[in-house]
Write a structure and sequence with these properties.
Distance between the termini: 9 Å
CATH superfamily of the largest domain: D-Amino Acid Oxidase, subunit A, domain 2
Bound molecules: flavin-adenine dinucleotide
CATH architecture of the largest domain: 2-Layer Sandwich
Number of domains: 2
Helix content: 25-40%
Number of helices: 8
Oligomer: single chain
Strand content: 25-35%
Radius of gyration: 21 Å
Order of helices and strands: EHEEHEHEHEEHEEEEEHEEEEHEEEH
Strand order of the largest sheet: 5-6-4-14-15-16-13-17
Shape: elongated
Length: 341
């Protein structure tokens, strides 16, 4: 029997944990400071469920988590009647040269990813919008994408149907402890009692646990999401090549992920994306900048468990990981295992 668990944060991580725990029959309360789920960094996420974007030389167990994530999202999407994931027929990835593309595909295939090299004609069949396809691209047919805020809303709704109490628009001000164990969370004007607390508040988690887990290991790393509205034209794959990482959202908008280096100006990043889209996908009509959001990705120190436990406060857990969308279902699974012990 899992004691009453309070989860702080209804981003993709907290929503996934709440979904798994509530399915396992646990009594859960999910709290978020925002008025709706998925309004933190999850709202600015590119939402690519991928092995292809990552280093093929990742340790086997880390690579295995990403492979499993692709299956997890496929299963979740089936559970939600095909409405959880964005429409996406895999990913097309190419490097600066054909040798680089071929090497990337080989190394990912050796790690267990399903990937096939395809030539320009097939690339054009898959993505007719690409004006000048490369001679070679790696096609990862199983890769998926999610519009992350939407996925958070769906997970939270299902969690609520499983009996979870959802508290939105209320910020957790602190944790309550007594005799070496967590006893609840402090909200404005009241304390909510809890037998367990899982802090899944993304980058804000550090402030919440600082007093009890000073070695939390959380840092942040900025990344930008550029959203373009378009007159017409859609990409059916995640496209990562020619200096751009881009996909279509379920509503037809295009989103592109950009790294933010020191001194990067957001206006320059946005202009660069619009120019690349016009050049690479001339069939996409009238791409216009809708918004650019810079999100602080919560990053955990290497080697930390996806769900860690406070050494000196029984019942207090921390769930922060990068890349959080990919890892969210795995974090949910590990939380259920940990709390069932
Ligand atoms: C441009 C960009 C592209 C990205 N692309 C990818 C990608 O392709 N794939 C991938 O896996 N990851 C990607 N990421 C990273 C990914 O978005 C994050 O790892 C993930 O969204 C983190 O989710 P989270 O639930 O931990 O945090 P959040 O989404 O920030 O959720 C935390 C929640 O906690 C709430 N909260 C905070 N403090 C409190 C408090 N005191 N009381 C109550 N509630 C509180 C917040 O309101 C928020 O809703 C990308 C990020 C960016 C910015």
């Amino acid at each position: 029997m899992i004691p009453h668990t309070v989860i702080i944060g209804a981003g993709i991580v907290g929503a996934s944990i709440a979904h798994r725990l509530s399915k396992a029959g646990a009594k859960v309360t999910l709290i978020d400071a925002a008025e709706a789920p998925g309004m933190g960094v999850s709202a600015a996420s590119f939402g690519w469920i991928t092995t292809a974007a990552g280093d093929p030389d990742l340790p086997d167990h880390v690579y295995g988590q990403r492979l499993r994530a692709i299956e997890d999202y496929a299963a979740l999407d089936r559970d939600f009647g095909g409405r959880l994931c964005a429409p996406c027929r895999g990913a097309l990835v190419w490097g600066a040269s054909d040798d680089e593309t071929s090497d990337w595909a080989d190394r990912h295939a050796r790690k267990g990813s399903l990937v096939r090299l395809i030539g320009a004609t097939e690339i054009s069949c898959f993505e007719p919008m690409i004006a000048r396809p490369p001679a070679l691209a790696a096609h990862f047919p199983m890769e998926r994408a999610v519009d992350v805020s939407h996925a958070c809303v769906m997970l939270v709704r299902a969690t609520q149907e499983n009996g979870t109490d959802i508290i939105l628009g209320q910020k957790v001000l602190g944790l309550e402890t007594a005799a070496g164990r967590v006893t609840g969370v402090r909200l404005s004007g009241r304390v909510l009692a809890a037998g367990r607390v899982i802090v899944a508040a993304g980058a804000r988690s550090a402030d919440i646990v600082a007093e009890f887990m000073p070695d939390h290991g959380i840092t942040t790393s900025p990344s930008a999401l550029v959203t373009l509205s378009v007159g017409s034209g859609i990409l059916s794959h995640v496209v990562d090549g020619g200096g751009i990482e881009i996909r279509s959202r379920a509503n037809g908008d295009l989103v592109a992920a950009c790294s933010v280096d020191k001194g990067s100006e957001t206006a320059d990043l946005a202009r660069d994306v619009v120019e690349k889209v016009r050049e690479m996908f001339p069939g996409i009509e009238n791409p216009r900048l809708d918004k650019i959001e810079v999100g602080l990705r919560p990053v955990q120190a290497d080697g930390r468990p996806l769900v860690s436990t406070a050494a000196d406060v029984e019942g207090l857990h921390l769930a922060v990981a990068h890349p959080g969308v990919i890892l969210a279902p795995e974090i949910g699974r590990q939380a259920v295992e940990l709390l069932a012990r």
